[in-house]
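Q: Could you fold this chain for me?
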Amino acid sequence: MSNAVIKRDVNNKFWDEELETMPHAKLEELQLERLKEMIKFAYENAPYYKRSFDEAGVKPEDIKSLDDLAKFPFITKITQRETQGKGSFLGELCAVPEEDVIFISTSSGSTGVPTMSPFTKEDFDEFQNTESRWFWQVGMRPNDRYVHALNFSLYVGGPDVIGAQNLGALCIWGGTLPSERLLFVLKTYQPTVIWTSPSYAWQLGEKAKKAGIDPKTDLNIKKIIVAGELGGSIPATRKAIEDLWGAELYDFYGLSDIFGACAAHCEYHDGLHICEDQIYVETVDIHTGEILPPGETGELVYTTLRKKARPLIRFRTGDIGRIDRTPCKCGRTHGRIYINGRKDDMFIVSAVNVFPSDIEAVIRDLDGITGEYLIRIFEKDLTCKYAVEIEKNSDNPETDEEVANKTSAALKARIGVKPAKVIVHPDGGLGTRSEHKSKRIIDERTLTYNI
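A: Sure. Below is the predicted structure, expressed as structure tokens.
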């Protein structure tokens, strides 16, 4: 596929109707065909998989059904780090020579050493065609003006702007412009679609208001795409941002290990359709690795079906969620994923699993506070506790104690366990506002916790 603009009937809601509405039985046939090819390709071309499969006593010929994938070993981020740079620049998971690689991105390194994600030309083109599918799915059309307000520096989401260009939208490569400059772009060029993080979408709208710009009337944003944080799929956060901007918000999900956006909301905002033609999804028990039925919550495991530069076979993502393969009202048949949070971020208080996304859902839904928050996880009497810090609106007449008590009660009602304390700051006192991702969790524990 070239990078030329791809023409579509603007009135057709589907980018690739045959693929997106394929009966699931036929989709599984396509997945099995691609899985057989990928397992064979990885075994024959990636040194790690040859060694790993041999040690596990499995071979490509063992794949006769999708269920047979369970016979093969998992890989993790640790696998990526341990094999990166080993044997070659791109490492033992790479299945093509370096001269076939035309692009690499890297992870943020937030959970360890940054890992590279290489792409062949074919990988990259299929990646961008998938991005075009998501943009079309949320309603972007060639007459839209689009601001891509994502980091371009080694970030896998940066090149996604090409997917918008491929469908013919007018694209403005905003990148990590300072807020004042980005607001100038939004006011001067009147774009209709923007993509950024949930926290920055909120903060940019607030900064606009403080600068005398009403996002609803002075700007022309109709659709906001967010990714990188969980807020876009938290109803209270989504509503807060939509009310601020007078625009519709869509959540995208991706990971540097595969490519930019791998899943996206449709118009019903009920889970994120994942590209099952590109990724085979399993859900496993976080402790045993046992495969769970669709619909049950566990750790999401992905196997790439097309990416040749660095195939990922049974990659344990660390994301806790579920997949729903029942029909969606939009007509698309690809499964929808629901993400609860990261296994790394989940903590247990009084035998209750707590995800930061649950805390955010409460904070964003409370009146009288700004929506900014910080979670501190700590130990007391050899048990795990958590505290929440929030900001009170400057016009809130309640006392700090009243705000803290109200917040604590709401958290107890939603999560099942109340915080050890709630600390109330004045508006702007937390310092959590960021141009892009905001740091929300401080883990002060010193004991080792296995969850």
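A (continued): Residues 1-344 form a domain with the Rossmann fold fold (CATH 3.40.50.12780).
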